[in-house]
Amino acid sequence: MEFSQLRYFEAVARLGNVTKAAHEQHIAQPSMSKALQALEQEVGVQLFDRVGRGVELSDAGALLLPYARRVLAEIQAARQALQARADLTVGHVSLGVTPTVGTRLIPQALATFNRRYQGIQLELHEAGASELVELLNAGVVDLAIVSALVHGVESTTLLSEPLVVVVSQQHRFAQRQSVLASELRDEGFIVFPQGYELRNYTLQLCEQAGFAPRIVLDGGEMDTVVSLVAAGLGVAVVPQLAIDQRIGLHALAIADGGLQRTLRLIRHSQRQPSPAAAALYRVLHEWVSQHYAQASIG
Amino acid sequence: MEFSQLRYFEAVARLGNVTKAAHEQHIAQPSMSKALQALEQEVGVQLFDRVGRGVELSDAGALLLPYARRVLAEIQAARQALQARADLTVGHVSLGVTPTVGTRLIPQALATFNRRYQGIQLELHEAGASELVELLNAGVVDLAIVSALVHGVESTTLLSEPLVVVVSQQHRFAQRQSVLASELRDEGFIVFPQGYELRNYTLQLCEQAGFAPRIVLDGGEMDTVVSLVAAGLGVAVVPQLAIDQRIGLHALAIADGGLQRTLRLIRHSQRQPSPAAAALYRVLHEWVSQHYAQASIG
DNA sequence: TATAAATCATAGTCTGAGGCTATCAATTAT
DNA sequence: ATAATTGATAGCCTCAGACTATGATTTATA
């Protein structure tokens, strides 16, 4: 039972005429006759009664017809669904991010994406970098933004943002524009939890300056950390962009070291991105290049 | 998009493995690979991601899969429906009869049929012989029982029943076993309506005996006619079988003439009977041969 | 880390399903 | 009667879809 046979069968049943159906289906009349015979042979019953000149649907044909129509409708629906997916009028894309990435980039870029592709459903997964790679390999997320260098996946640099030392506006360095890492030897540090890249960056900065940081508070998300800094509890190393919109804080460039956090957009190297995932990929790069032209290294 | 392609696609999606799916579908592995590629080419998207050793359903594949499964289910359902029809576990058959036929034959024969083929729906159409032929040609009824000879359709003799003159038990002939047609010259006749074969038989009998019958009452179905005869209103010519179960009546054989009414089972000569129609055909003949062996001429 | 096993893709061959044209047979309209 | 319409048959041809053999790549294992 081939699809062409069902299509031909439906045409003959609808038109009640082999010749006309053959024309409609763009085949020769004998081919149509043969196709019907083949279908009848396969299902083992006569589908049409050859009555006089002309044919008409038999009892069995009338039984088969609705099934045939449903099959043809399903196939058409499948084609349309795939087409809609390619046209980006429907779809789904899942983005993974590490927790500190979201602050400004994600909401605005996703809002842009959503305005442009109304029918595509967005999904956001927040997790650590290594877990994101697992989600990517498992196919749970299509793309992910991480700050660490990861292996085994295809990655592009989304943007590089400078890391700054942030202090309260009452702090002794509050009037300065930059510090040397070594000047932070006596400061109390507020650091991100285990596993966060920003924690590693911080520890690395101190180590290179030749001291082990005195940790005032360990753990806490971005919001908490910057609030604690504003309250004068200590200093912290954060991305420049994370404090753009905050008041009561002062950012100090790090004169030596010049640390930067690089956000990478990663995707599965072997999996073909869906049209929706490819679109999100484009929108993210586009949004960054328009809003962070100065920060993006490319 | 061929049926086999969807079947293969579903197998690979289910098993996540081209080789195993090829085994299951009884084709060689390269044939499976090629079939998948052909399907992907046709729909214009990748349906599987070839990730490492093994394949897994892509975004587009996941979209297509439910459609494919519905198509396969519909085709299976269609096959089962046709099979059930052939097995006589489901079906439909429509029988046409002329009004005076029904009295004993139809109810009992149809009851037998229904006991044997529980799933098959019966439909009964009562109409005149010429209308029944039209219904037969239009495919509304599968079979019909008529008493007249009709042309252009395939007919078999179901049974021949003798026509008798029926009188009331108070009638002057009530003690006799038979009469000559000419003896009925002075009787009042109750006749069936225009178009009924029994009316024609009656008039024909009188004409051959050399007189025109005096018609007391014209029109009326079988029940009415025999009731009127029992009430002494007149005589009538009816089939022997029609009055078997009645009291207050006396039947007289017609010594000369010896008229018989032949019931014929007709079907369309070009249309292939459905299994249900063929079964009803068999049951009717079978029932007649078992219950009217003496009456059936064959 | 080298070797074996597993898995999918490619190359090349062959057969038959399904297309075509030409024509016949049967029915219906003129 | 004659012409037109319609479906079936015969005979031919092409390519889709099957096969075997083999290659390339990844993963498991000694």
TrEMBL record, chains A, B:
Question: Which PROSITE patterns does this entry report, sorted A to Z?
Answer: HTH_LYSR (PS50931)
Q: Tell me a GO cellular component.
A: cytosol
Q: According to its UniProt record, what is one Pfam family this protein matches?
A: HTH_1
Question: What terms describe the molecular function in GO for this protein?
Answer: DNA binding; DNA-binding transcription factor activity
**Top-level lineage group:** Bacteria
HTH lysR-type domain: from which residue to which, for each copy? 1-58
Q: Which UniProt keywords apply?
A: DNA-binding, Transcription, Transcription regulation
Database matches in InterPro entries = HTH-type_LysR_regulators, LysR_HTH_N, LysR_subst-bd, WH-like_DNA-bd_sf, WH_DNA-bd_sf
Stored CDD domains: PBP2_LTTR_substrate
Q: State if DNA repair is listed as a keyword.
A: no
Q: Which family does it belong to?
A: Belongs to the LysR transcriptional regulatory family.
Name this protein carries in UniProt: HTH lysR-type domain-containing protein
